UniProtKB/TrEMBL annotation:
Gene3D superfamilies: Aspartate Aminotransferase, domain 1, Type I PLP-dependent aspartate aminotransferase-like (Major domain). Keywords: Aminotransferase, Biotin biosynthesis, Pyridoxal phosphate, Transferase. This is 8-amino-7-oxononanoate synthase. SUPFAM superfamilies: PLP-dependent transferases. Residues 33-359 form the Aminotransferase class I/classII large domain.
Length: 371
């Protein structure tokens, strides 16, 4: 057995011992209720979104054909960027191939030898990976702790970037964005807010930064994915025109990547327009989140994500499998994927659930979690 084969076997055995082995497979069908995915508004199958994607596929082809800096920029990209900027109350936007790529590009493009990065300890893996890739000094501060952030900022010798989420992806809690913006302004730091779980969900769908009046500020950058509430694919960075111009010239995940596929861009554009025109969809998320959280006796969520603590990773896996047999799909998050090292079931209270589905799934999750 080769050295690498032996190493792979050891890693697999360790994952099995810890109960953290991941698998993939086709799970969704018409008979299941999907509370595991991120299609918060149910727009991925909305007829208007699908029709827009199909029309773009027929007009432009399956792919953009090149990077955006060569010949890969299409009218649908520019229309999407304008619509996203309008929805989020921003001056400009730049679309990336994924939300992960958007975060990598946004962080690394603003780093030089005088820059340090401070991340909320619960921030998404893409932000932590961006900090590592930037090669800049970086550290974490206690989750949503303004005093700890201020302490860390006071000790930085040069410029600082602070990276947070607006609504956190595992616990579903909101960041104190106004206070974060204030302390960043006090120390001259750039605040990067990942609104992956805020766009289409918080603040009439326009995001938490817009709701709190900090969208468009010169020292605030917002990132988001187009694959959750907007039901498509891709990512975006929103900010001032100067931010956009800098990203075009410095963000490697934009410069060296093929442009977002036109079907995904058109689908995201249609979804963005739906969010702006149908605020009742966003209201439905809040209603379903409140109903399910009351039934499960768990903390309410600032977005669409609900988190049910489980005693062990094995118990979480067993509950997930029991629910799957009953036709309900839920997420199963286990360390090290959870920021607090607690195994959890993760539910998304989608806007398109029927009242009967909401009641049924809440009852089933309560039974499974109690076993």
């Amino acid at each position: 057995m080769s050295t690498w084969t032996s190493w792979l076997a050891q890693r697999a055995e360790l994952r099995d011992e810890r109960g953290t082995t991941r698998t993939i497979g086709v799970l969704r069908d018409d008979a299941t209720i999907d509370l595991a995915g991120n299609d918060y508004l149910g727009l991925s199958r909305d007829s208007r979104v699908v029709a827009a994607a199909v029309a773009a596929l027929e007009e432009y082809g399956a792919g953009a054909g090149a990077s955006r800096l060569v010949t890969g920029t299409l009218p649908v990209h520019e229309d999407l960027e304008a619509a996203l900027a309008e929805l989020c109350g921003q001056q400009s936007a730049l679309v990336f191939a994924s939300g992960y790529a958007a975060n990598l590009g946004a962080v690394t493009a603003f780093v030089d030898r005088d820059t340090s990065i401070l991340l909320d300890e619960h921030a998404h893996a893409s932000l932590h990976d961006a900090a590592r890739m930037s090669r800049a000094p970086h550290e974490t501060f206690a989750h949503n702790d303004i005093d700890d952030l201020a302490r860390a900022l006071s000790q930085q010798p040069g410029r600082s970037i602070v990276a947070v989420e607006s609504v956190y992806s595992v616990l579903g809690d909101a960041a104190p964005l106004s206070e974060l913006a204030d302390v960043c302004a006090r120390y001259g730091a750039l605040l990067i807010i990942d609104e992956a779980h805020g766009i289409g969900v918080a603040g009439e769908g326009r995001g938490l930064a817009h709701t709190l009046g900090i969208a468009g500020a010169e020292d605030v950058i917002v990132t988001a994915t187009l694959s959750k509430a907007l039901g498509a694919q891709g990512g975006v960075v929103l900010g001032t025109p100067a931010v956009r111009e800098h990203l075009i010239n410095a963000a490697r995940t934009f410069i060296f990547d093929t442009g977002l596929a036109p079907a995904a861009a058109a689908g995201a554009l249609a979804a963005t327009n739906i969010v702006r025109e149908q605020p009742d969809l966003v209201v439905a998320i809040g209603r379903h989140t409140a109903q399910i959280s009351r039934a499960l006796e768990i903390s309410p969520s600032a977005g669409a994500v609900l988190s049910v603590p489980m005693p062990t990773p094995a118990a979480a896996v067993a509950a997930r499998e029991q629910l799957r047999e009953r036709g309900v799909l839920v997420g199963c998050f286990r360390p090290p994927s959870t920021p607090d090292e607690v195994a959890r079931l993760r539910l998304t209270a989608r806007a398109d659930l029927t009242p009967v589905q909401v009641e049924f799934t809440a009852d089933e999750v309560r039974r499974a979690a109690a076993c």
